[in-house]
Automatic annotation (TrEMBL):
InterPro entries: UbiA_prenyltransferase, UBIAD1. It comes from the Eukaryota. This is Uncharacterized protein. Keywords: Membrane, Transmembrane, Transmembrane helix. The keyword Transmembrane helix applies. The chain crosses the membrane at residues 27-44, 50-68, 75-93, 105-128, 140-157. GO terms for biological process: menaquinone biosynthetic process; ubiquinone biosynthetic process; vitamin K biosynthetic process. GO terms for cellular component: membrane. It is a multi-pass membrane protein. Its main location: membrane. One of its GO terms (molecular function) is prenyltransferase activity. It comes from Dictyostelium purpureum.
Length: 162
């Protein structure tokens, strides 16, 4: 099976049209090596249970960063974006309290995570609304494209009110 590379110039500004497959492979390689070097002291200094939690959160973050752009093209970028930022919040909470809390409705960090989710949705929706015309030309189906300009703006305002 062969991969066919798309060499057409795009209006999508995600990668600014300045990178190549070779450079992307180097980014991924550098990120992986950097993460491993950061995880070594965590493994040697702390209990294995803490290392596992840090490793799980790191893997979630790494996968989220890779999946965002492809998901953006099919109106799912917001879900990856939310997962990425909420997992960051839970990781920071774990790093300070040594407690894993994932959507325990009675816990304050869960309520705070919902506030963060609405805030992050507003930010990404604002970006999608701003790029509506360019994304439509590039056939990127964001939430803003699916809703149209008028309802995209209404959605943005409703997120602001929440």
């Amino acid at each position: 099976m062969y991969l066919k590379l798309d060499t057409a110039v795009t209006v999508d500004k995600t990668l600014f049209g300045l990178t190549s497959i070779k450079v992307l492979k180097r980014y991924i390689w550098f990120s992986t090596i950097s993460i491993c070097f950061i995880l070594i002291p965590v493994y040697t200094k702390y209990h294995f249970d803490i290392f596992k939690v840090v490793l799980y959160f790191t893997i979630i973050q790494f996968i989220g960063s890779i999946l965002y752009t492809p998901a953006k093209y099919v109106a799912c970028g917001q879900f990856i974006f939310l997962g990425f930022h909420v997992s960051t919040l839970y990781f920071f909470y774990f790093s300070q309290c040594q407690e894993i809390v994932i959507f325990d409705i009675g816990h304050p960090i869960t309520l705070f995570s919902f506030l963060i989710m609405f805030s992050m949705l507003q930010v990404i929706q604002g970006n999608y609304h701003r790029d509506h015309d360019d994304d439509k030309k590039a056939r990127i189906y964001t939430i803003a494209i699916l809703l149209g300009k008028k309802f995209s703006l209404y959605y943005f305002y409703s997120l602001f009110i929440m």
